Amino acid sequence: MWAKKHLLYTEATRHPFILSIRDGSVDLSSFKRWLGQDYVFVREFVPFVASVLIKASKKSDDGNDMEVILGGLASLNEIAWFKSEASKWDVPLSNTVVHKANQNYRRFLENLMLPEVDYAVAITAFWAIEAVYQESFAHCLEDGSKTPSELQDTCQRWGNEGFGEYCRSLQKIANRCLEKASSDVLTKAEVTFLRVLEHEVEFWNMSHGCA
Ligand code: HMH
């Protein structure tokens, strides 16, 4: 299980699409496809994060959780960011055809929004979803990367140090919840974590045009 997790995590955070941004060989039509699809994704991600906030307000014994999650929601003003980025790249957002991988991912999120899903499971998923983007885009900003200047804004959006700090806060919350979780919830959280990684890989595949 651990080896599989490790492998999938690397696949999700070092995907060929991300590596192509980092080495400057990225195909701009892939980038635009990703941008349009991610906008659609984020519109579903916001209600998911709101559902995690509601779970935190009911279940959590640590007053800090709500602040961290609220901070995440505020940064999901990605909606506005997407709109300006899309107009910069001439990507129409209104009639985007929602790709299969995106539909599957959004359906997965919808299920995680159900009230019967444990807070520990939902916050683990939330952390993993954010962490994949953080680790992926931070990789494109490291010394020695040849990320094209016009893609720097996008990489900064998720790759910046503040976003990294926020992901570490989410991880701390998830760890705290999992330490106290029953073995049943722990298993569900593990499975959910792996599903997130699979969906992220499929999402990148779609942008890259290999799906
Ligand atoms: C597919 N995963 C996907 N899109 C995002 N915007 C994030 C994660 C992080 O916010």
UniProtKB/TrEMBL annotation:
GO terms for biological process: thiamine biosynthetic process. InterPro entries: Haem_Oase-like_multi-hlx, TenA_E, Thiaminase-2/PQQC, Thiamine_Salvage_TenA. Its EC number is 3.5.99.2. Pathway: Cofactor biosynthesis; thiamine diphosphate biosynthesis. Keywords: Disulfide bond, Hydrolase, Thiamine biosynthesis. Substrate binds at D38, E78, E130. It is an enzyme of class 3 (hydrolase). It catalyses: 4-amino-5-aminomethyl-2-methylpyrimidine + H2O = 4-amino-5-hydroxymethyl-2-methylpyrimidine + NH4(+); N-formyl-4-amino-5-aminomethyl-2-methylpyrimidine + H2O = 4-amino-5-aminomethyl-2-methylpyrimidine + formate. It comes from the Eukaryota. Residues 2-207 form the Thiaminase-2/PQQC domain. One of its GO terms (cellular component) is cytosol. GO terms for molecular function: thiaminase activity. Belongs to the thiaminase-2 family. This is aminopyrimidine aminohydrolase. The lineage of its organism: Eukaryota, Viridiplantae, Streptophyta, Embryophyta, Tracheophyta.
